[in-house]
Amino acid sequence: MNAQKLSKRLQTVASFVPEKSVVADIGSDHAYLPCYLVLQGVIHRAIAGEVVKGPYESACNEVRKEQLQESIAVRFADGLQAIEKEDGVTAITIAGMGGPLIASILEKDAECLQGVERLILQPNIHAIAIREWAMANDWKIINEEILKEDEKIYEVLVLERGEESLNTVQLLLGPVLYKEKNAVFKEKWQHEINQWLLVLEALKQAEPTTAIAEKERELQQKIELVKEVLKD
User: Domain range spanning residue 201?
Assistant: First the structure.
């Protein structure tokens, strides 16, 4: 993977970036995504934010290598603090982190979202945390995609401003994904069921407590819920 050719995961993220938007890529790593978007002519300006010194330096090197210093500002900053008001950012991408971490980044510096029209988020795990954040903060999920690459399954969530109301099934599985129920979706959730069954078995061997009984009930409910969806 490089700035000319993205991984399937990042290519999917890139496909949801609106043309001519000003993008802030948070946790940009090598800055491949913003470099690719500028090189392809999708956007003209971007910010690559990194909070870790090594990846920050890698991003600086990549932007210099592609001679994009006039188009991409690389900033050493924590989360959304990489964004300055004068940037006029209209789209934010955050990829390759856990859902709870992505949600906490959005929550921590919410004032930096002013003027932002679209969020393209790719959680590695626990996408439910992003859906819960969206509901609580007036962001609506307008699209979702699930894909498999190198034996790993990823979800991409696209949010725009608007009221969101999701039920238990939609929160857990994704309002768009559970309707489409493609092969990767079915593979992911069958694997989750299998993992939950293993946990249930382990809990049955443990000394019974109120907390364990509650956990068993919670897992059983999830298993039944997902089985019902996969059966349809």
Answer: 184-231
Q: Is the pLDDT of residue 225 over 90?
A: yes
Q: In terms of pTM, does the model score above 0.85?
A: yes
Name residue 117's amino acid.
Answer: E
Last residue of a domain, one of 173, 192, 213: 173
Residue 209 in any domain: the answer is yes
- The neighbouring-strand residues paired with 93 are 25, 120
Condensed to tens digits (0 to 9), the pLDDT of residues 65-102 reads 999 999 999 999 999 999 999 999 999 999 999 999 99
Strands 91-97 and 118-123: parallel
Domain count, the chain: 2
**Residue ending a domain, choose from 151, 173, 195:** 173
**What's the CA gap between 214 and 166, in Å, rounded?**
24
Q: Is residue 179 part of a domain?
A: no
Q: Residue holding tokens 């008001």? A: 85
73 SS3 class: strand
Q: Which residue has the tokens 């090189």?
A: 39
Nearest to 25 by CA among 6, 42, 50: 50
- Strands 91-97 and 72-76 come out as unpaired
Q: How far apart are CA 10 and CA 198, in angstroms?
A: 32
Task: Identify the CATH number of the domain in which residue 17 sits.
Answer: 3.40.50.150
Contact in structure between 176 and 133 (CB atoms under 8 Å): no
